[in-house]
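Last lecture ended with a question: if I hand you only a sequence, what can you say about the shape of the protein? Today we answer it with a concrete record. The protein is Leucine-rich repeat-containing N-terminal plant-type domain-containing protein. Below, first the input exactly as provided, then the predicted structure, then a couple of comments.
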Amino acid sequence: MSKIPLSVLLFLFGNLLSSSVVHAIVNVTGNKTQYFKAGSDRNSGKDCDRGWPHCKQPITAQRSSLLPVEAEVLIFEDLRLSVVYPVIQKFKSIISSDPQGITKTWVGSDICNYKGFYCDNPPDNKSATAVASIDFNGFQLGAPSLEGFLDQLPDIAVFHANSNKFAGTISTNIAKLPYLYELDVSNNRLSGPFPTAVVGLNSLTFLDLRFNFFTGSVPPRLFAQDFDFLLINNNNLMQNLPDSLSSTHILYLTLANNKFSGSIPVGIVEALSSLTEVLLVNNSLSGCLPYELGSLDEAVVFDAGNNRLTGPLPFSLACLKKVEQLNFAGNLLYGMVPEMSLPSHVDLYSNALHVYLY
Ligand SMILES: *[C@@H]1O[C@H](CO)[C@@H](O)[C@H](O)[C@H]1NC(C)=O
Ligand SMILES: *[C@@H]1O[C@H](CO)[C@@H](O)[C@H](O)[C@H]1NC(C)=O
Ligand SMILES: *[C@@H]1O[C@H](CO)[C@@H](O)[C@H](O)[C@H]1NC(C)=O
Ligand SMILES: *[C@@H]1O[C@H](CO)[C@@H](O)[C@H](O)[C@H]1NC(C)=O
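The predicted structure:
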């Protein structure tokens, strides 16, 4: 066990500022999205673990046997593509900005080769071809709404639209999308109440609504849903955190930069035993730190800075084996710092903590 002289704490505080959290998928201060999954590299574009869509390879239309057709007649490789064609064209007609010329490719029947669209064989019919995934990340497209588009793509499994200028609200009709398992609309201009339709989308494991203007409260049942990633930081959400967070294998939970209030739920532990990264920074959380925090066995980052937390640091924090970044700066904590082998980044700055040397 190391003793913690005050000078070391200050020294570490300096370190924290200059270090980067390489394992994290979430960079709360940045607003781009990088996809990683524990143990695999999401950036490789391979995402075969769910079986659908298969590794996100665009499917090239096979039409060699087709007879020559008149220019106006569109021949689709599959009925499902003909169904989404008008949906896509309607969306194209409301696109208000497209600095990269993306929608110029959204022409004709070969939807699987439109920029940003990926096809695959849907789970309910292995011989069919459908739009399985959309990746608009960084396209900077503008549109007044996603309504009538996202919710009208019946086979969509992955929708990524980080860093665009999509406005409006999220349609309640997304509740009818049976295969949707990744929804990323982070860093857009979406507003309105929290899209409660995501509650009960049982296939959804990745929800990223960061950097938008969603307001009001989050349905408590959201925290009981089976997400791997629940990223809702930098919105205008406000409510007391529910007493129980009963999601069983959530890895990343980011509520930072909202107006969440109330205490950190005691139930956070049995519920969130696999939590790797928890960002609660910049909210209005109050009350004492629960002793149970010390049982977050997998936690690498726990950031509850800039809240109104009070009381002492629980001695159980010394049990956090994997933690690399622990931030309680900007709270009203007092008392003594538990004797612990220091994680690499402990930030207790601007509290009234006294360090006792043994
Ligand atoms: C997070 O994003 C900000 C702004 O884009 C960037 O300056 C910073 O280096 C990023 N931090 C990490 C750890 O990637
Ligand atoms: C967030 O993204 C916008 C563009 O979408 C950019 O102008 C802004 O600087 C970004 N902010 C941060 C903190 O990275
Ligand atoms: C599966 O899809 C193929 C290709 O679109 C179609 O011909 C076939 O009728 C479909 N099967 C069923 C059971 O819907
Ligand atoms: C917390 O809020 C402050 C003040 O608005 C801001 O400077 C800081 O970047 C925020 N921290 C994070 C991690 O977003």
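Comments.
1. The two ends are 11 Å apart (CA to CA).
2. The first strand starts at residue 117 and ends at 120.
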